[in-house]
Amino acid sequence: MTKTRSGDAPRSRLQGVYALIDPGRAEPIAFTEALLRGGIRLVQVRAKGGIDAATLLAIVGRVRAAGGLALVNDDVRLARLADGVHLGQEDAAQLDLAQLRRGLPGAVIGLSCGTPQDARAADPALIDYVAAGPAFATPSKDDAGLPIGLSGVRAVAAATGLPCAAIGGLGPATIGRIPETGAQMAAVISALVSDDVEAAARDLVARWENARP
């Protein structure tokens, strides 16, 4: 029997274009505001070089005011200031996920899963969504590994009852293929870093909505 937990995080809101915010590539607050104007309501702050609490709180406040969710990448300490955290397999292996869940009641916890086996191992009592990828070759993450393609994303999505986010190499030419894999989200970063972030966001949201069944 599949385990669930009481007080489920808002899994029904885990859908659509999922924007990754890298403070090293764009001024994060203005970038967030442009994403929201473009219709994106799900973001992850991926600050490998660190981010100060005031900036994170400013991002989270803006996203929440727009009715969205703002997560952080890896940093469980900062996750307490946001709506949750996204973890890689190595990060998760070094944590007591049950303890993390108790410390983040009602928060979203996501987990990178490159294979169906990883997805099946994700305990739905502790994990709220899985991220499958890289779907395509990506310049945004040096250690992303070989692309798993649409078939790989489909296999990961089919292996779990949790919401799935496709990630890696997604942009205007590829985002429309993701709904056919069964993934509920498309995580994007490079395609949003442009001279007109709002227009890029609006275009991706429209392409996603047009491609949904």
Global Rg: 16 Å
User: How helical, in percent, are the residues?
Assistant: 25-40%
Structural class: alpha/beta
Order of helices and strands: EHEHEHEHHEHEHEEH
User: Which stretches of 5+ consecutive residues score pLDDT under 50?
Assistant: 1-7
CATH class: Alpha Beta
Dominant shape: globular
Give a count of the beta strands, DSSP E runs of length 2 or more: 8
For the biggest β-sheet, the strand order reads 1-2-3-4-5-6-7-8
* CATH homologous superfamily grouping: Aldolase class I
Distance between the termini: 29 Å
> Counting H and I runs of at least 4 residues, what is the number of helices?
8
Task: Provide the domain count.
Answer: 1
CATH architecture: Alpha-Beta Barrel
CATH topology: TIM Barrel
Give the DSSP E fraction (strand runs of 2 or more residues).
15-25%
Q: Let me know the largest β-sheet.
A: 8 strands, parallel, barrel
Which whole number gives the mean pLDDT? 93
What does this structure look like?
With about 210 residues, the protein is an alpha/beta fold. It has one domain (about 15-210): TIM Barrel. The chain contains eight helices and eight strands, in the order βαβαβαβααβαβαββα. Strands 1-2-3-4-5-6-7-8 form an eight-stranded parallel barrel, surrounded by four helices. Helix 1 crosses helix 8 (about 195-210). It is globular and about 40 Å long. It starts with 15 loop residues before the first strand and ends with a helix. Mean pLDDT is about 95; it is low at about 1-5.
